[in-house]
Design brief:
Bound molecules: S-adenosylmethionine
CATH class of the largest domain: Alpha Beta
Strand content: 5-15%
Largest sheet: 7 strands, mixed
Number of domains: 2
CATH topology of the largest domain: Rossmann fold
Helix content: 40-55%
Order of helices and strands: HHHHHHEHEHEHEHEHEE
Radius of gyration: 18 Å
CATH superfamily of the largest domain: Vaccinia Virus protein VP39
Structural class: alpha/beta
Strand order of the largest sheet: 3-2-1-4-5-7-6
CATH architecture of the largest domain: 3-Layer(aba) Sandwich
Length: 277
């Protein structure tokens, strides 16, 4: 007889096939498998926080260093792999499982470090496993000791990554709020209108109707509004919305991080930032 608990662990991992996970609406079984899977790698959160803090100021703003840091010390998701360059395969399903293009995300991190020093609150709509949320909070905390609270929202339940980060952050005096539900719900709208986060990342419902509603909700108070998948062949609606908002929000400045990998045909991801001086 083999050791049955070891055997069970292997089975649990084998059945969680990220390439077939629906974006939302997990069955109870899948919810449980996701929880078990991420609980086993929860130490990735502590490792990231430690390693990010250890980056010296002299390297924090260095684009090539930070791009490599995203790969080695943050780690990528393993869903929708066709959108990620095949040479990045060793980093799929590692670290914090962020659903990002490392070339774009590393430059966005540097932009935040330089431009978000006065922001003391953050909202991420569509936080998924929680990796992008955790990294963004740490970036904002690094440049602002008065960074006060952050809200993560998703249709799925809070993941072990978010739960672990909430306890690390609380010890450091940062309040983390998790909202399980739709960004269009009355409860969410009431909460966000009361909190008025300084920065919002919109990465939930990628249809124009959804992403525009999220934008309309925060535009009165968020000084920085970030849209995800703004240069993406697989997300034509969020891409169209971004190209429209750049013109429609004429009182806001904008910048975008849309570098692509030559090994991929087409455009994927893209981070668009609208900001007030
Ligand atoms: C692309 S994933 C987010 C990835 C994450 N921001 C990251 O960078 O790793 C989109 C997430 O949005 C969530 N979502 C979709 N519609 C939503 C809504 N109306 N309100 C809140 N979350 C939503 C989905 O459940 C899914 O987990």
């Amino acid at each position: 007889m083999t050791n049955s608990s070891e055997e069970n662990k292997v089975k649990e991992k084998a059945v969680l096939d990220f390439s077939n996970l629906p974006e939302t609406g997990f069955s109870e079984d899948t919810t449980q498998q996701v929880r078990t899977y991420f609980s086993e790698i929860i130490k990735n959160v502590d490792e990231f926080v430690r390693e990010f803090h250890a980056i010296p100021d002299t390297l924090l703003y260095n684009e090539s260093y930070m791009e490599q840091f995203v790969l080695n010390n943050i780690g990528l998701n393993n869903e929708s792999l066709g959108e990620l360059a095949p040479e990045l395969a060793p980093y799929f399903g590692t670290g914090l499982y962020i659903w990002q293009n490392p070339k774009q995300f590393s430059k966005y991190m540097i932009w935040l470090l330089k431009n978000a020093q006065n922001c003391s609150s953050y909202l991420e709509i569509g936080s998924r496993w929680g990796g992008t949320f955790i990294v963004t909070c740490e970036v904002l905390r690094r440049v602002n000791p008065n960074f006060k609270y952050a809200i993560a929202a998703d249709l799925i339940e809070a993941t072990p990554f978010i739960e672990r980060y909430a306890s690390i952050a609380t010890e450091a005096g940062l309040e983390i709020i998790y909202f399980e539900g739709s960004s269009t719900s009355d409860e969410f709208i009431r909460m966000v209108t009361e909190y008025k986060p300084n920065i919002t990342l919109i990465d939930g419902d990628h249809r124009i109707s959804g992403a525009l509603k999220d934008h309309m909700l925060v535009r009165k108070f968020s000084k920085i509004i970030v849209h995800h998948d703004v240069c993406s062949d697989t997300c034509p609606e969020s891409t169209l919305l971004w190209n429209s908002l750049k013109q429609l929000e004429s009182e806001m400045n904008h910048t975008e991080f849309i570098d692509q990998y030559p090994s991929l045909k087409g455009n994927y991801f893209g981070i668009g930032v609208l900001f007030r001086e």
